Design the sequence.
């Protein structure tokens, strides 16, 4: 299953509770699109959020985020991963 | 230990082998800065690389990347993570 990283901007000063609530809105509806949001990280100083997900396509990831109320134009497919 | 995400641009068409070689240059020298690069993901189409690390500071992460030959101005500290 392809992996994706999406990047959101403008989340300056967002709290852990607010990020968790946003992430849970994704988790509640992701199954309909065959997507799973694995993890999300927040830098509240710059307002950046990074979400790591797996799913069938970039468009499916975007649809979940749109329905959950936080669309983004920045979604990257990650065919290569190293540890 | 704080976590960080750094973002690199311009890696269009880079292969898994090339990403692995770059990542291994970080791993070889990270200890001197108390940093650990946990994972790196590549989108060879857009040329974006995302690196997840832990370490004492953004500056320490940058110093490792600089010495390894791939500095970036985009390093975000991630005090909040949700699953």
Sequence:
């Amino acid at each position: 299953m392809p992996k994706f990283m999406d990047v959101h901007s403008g989340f300056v000063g967002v709290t852990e509770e607010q990020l968790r609530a946003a992430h849970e809105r994704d988790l509640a509806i992701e199954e309909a699109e065959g997507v799973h949001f694995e993890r999300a990280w927040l830098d509240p100083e710059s307002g950046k959020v990074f979400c790591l997900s797996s799913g069938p396509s970039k468009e499916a990831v975007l649809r979940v985020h749109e329905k959950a109320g936080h669309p983004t134009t920045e979604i990257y497919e990650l065919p290569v991963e190293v540890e």
Q: What stands out?
A: The longest helix of chain B spans residues 16-29. Chain B is about 30% helix and 35% strand. Chain B touches chain A at residues 3, 5, 7, 14-16, 19-20, 23, 38-46, 48, 50, 52, 76-83 (CB under 8 Å).
